[in-house]
Amino acid sequence: SYIYSRERVYAMHQSSIDGVEDMSALAELHEAAIMHNLYQRYQKDNIYTNIGSILAAVNPYKQISGLYDPERVDLYSKHHIGELPPHIFAVANECYRCIWKRHDSQCVLISGESGAGKTESTKLLLQFLSVMSQKSAGTSPLEKSTRVEQAIVQSSPIMEAFGNAKTVYNNNSSRFGKFIQLHFSEGGNIQGGCVIDCILICI
Ligand SMILES: Nc1ncnc2c1ncn2[C@@H]1O[C@H](COP(=O)(O)OP(=O)(O)OP(=O)(O)O)[C@@H](O)[C@H]1O
User: Fold this and answer.
1) Together in a domain, 25 and 90
2) What GO molecular function terms would the record report (predicted)?
3) How many angstroms does the Cα of residue 177 sit away from the middle of ligand 1?
């Protein structure tokens, strides 16, 4: 152990005590402050935190009530990024809007160690985008979604049946990386897509 003298110990900044939704607002930006902020938020079931335009997600390993409800999809679809608390739906909405705002293809890169929640995050993104697609096509949420949206959401369990395995880190671990492409019409609905397997993970 190392004993610090009183002169070398500083009081925690108020922003670290209160916690922040965006880590760029932390007055002290070092590993301990980042981990403490994530931990404080995680304890209150706030699993999402922004780091500027990046979203950090902490796997809660439990269902958080209401977090991914259709009402939440609707709410995030009507707000710009930063107006509501950090959420994977805010990223999905920004991505969807930017196709037209920037007149260009958009991508979301999801990374993290095994069991971090990448696959679940991907499915939530696809769920949000398929709802946006249905809305743009004028399909009411009560009506059945179109074949392509259904295929996108329902392809996950099939891909998982072939490509996932139980490991010591994750009961449902993806054994290959995926590049998922979605094609949108000018009107905003999904016209098609593909999944390309890109890396084989064999640990
Ligand atoms: N947002 C979430 N809410 C609730 N549970 C979650 C969430 N994200 C992940 N989990 C839980 O954690 C488990 C592991 O997550 P997931 O399979 O997405 O990890 P991964 O990062 O894709 O891992 P791998 O790299 O091994 O494929 C899920 O099966 C689920 O039980």
Assistant:
1) no
2) actin binding; ATP binding; cytoskeletal motor activity
3) 14
ipTM exceeds 0.95, yes or no = yes
Q: 81 is in which domain, residue-wise?
A: 45-200
- Residue 64's φ and ψ, nearest 5 degrees, are -95, 120
The three-state secondary structure class of 122 is helix
Residues with CB under 6 A from ligand 1: 59-61, 63, 112, 114-120, 169-170, 172-174
What token pair was written down for 67?
Answer: 């977090």
Q: Provide the CATH number for the domain around residue 151.
A: 3.40.850.10
- The binding site for ATP consists of 112-119
Burial class (CB in 10 A: 0-12, 13-18, 19+), 90: buried
Please indicate, yes or no, whether residues 83 and 156 belong to a single structural domain of this protein. Answer: yes
For residue range 87-98, list pLDDT tens digits in order: 999 999 999 999
